[in-house]
Amino acid sequence: KFIAGMKLANMTFGGAYSKVDNDAGKKANNWMIAAKYDMNPFILKANYGVAGEASSNAKDGGKIIGLEADYVLDKQTFVYLYYANYSGDSLAKGFKFDAGIGRARPTTRE
Fold first, then answer.
1. Is 23 helix (H, G, I), strand (E, B) or coil?
2. 86 Cβ neighbours under 8 A, 6+ residues apart
3. What does the alpha-carbon distance between residue 16 and residue 5 come to, in Å, rounded to a whole number?
4. Long-range Cβ contact pairs of 28-34 (< 8 A, separation 24 or more)
């Protein structure tokens, strides 16, 4: 795993890279980049990440993008708006919501 970041005036940049080995001969390269821009009292943030396929043509990778806007009220309080979009390959399990996987199950009363 490798993580790095830097701050320049009111901008912050960062990135992360990792190689995951599941001990079954499958390895995936994953990375993410992020940025933050502080224009008091507003803070804008964005990130983009990619989860690589575990093997050639495994169809289990994915991509995610996140956007956030914060409004700082005081040192302890802020309000924010956050948007994220995940797109996974057909066999990705992390955020799979079709066929009942990941869906909330109805509760039953006894």
1. coil
2. 62, 63, 64, 94, 95
3. 9
4. 28/52, 28/53, 28/54, 28/60, 28/61
Query: Residue 65: beta bridge partners?
Result: 48, 85
Amino acid identity of 84?
Answer: A
Which DSSP symbol is given to 107? P
- Is the pLDDT at 59 greater than 80, yes or no? no
Beta bridge partners of 3: 16
For range 13-28, the mean pLDDT: 81
At 74, list the tokens.
Answer: 């005081």
Q: How many CB atoms lie within 10 A of CB 92?
A: 19
* pLDDT of 94: 60
Written as one string, the DSSP assignment of 45-79 is: EEEEEEE--SSTT----EEEEEEEEEEEEETTEEE
The number of residues making up the chain comes to: 110
Query: Looking up tokens 């996140």, which residue turns up?
Result: 66
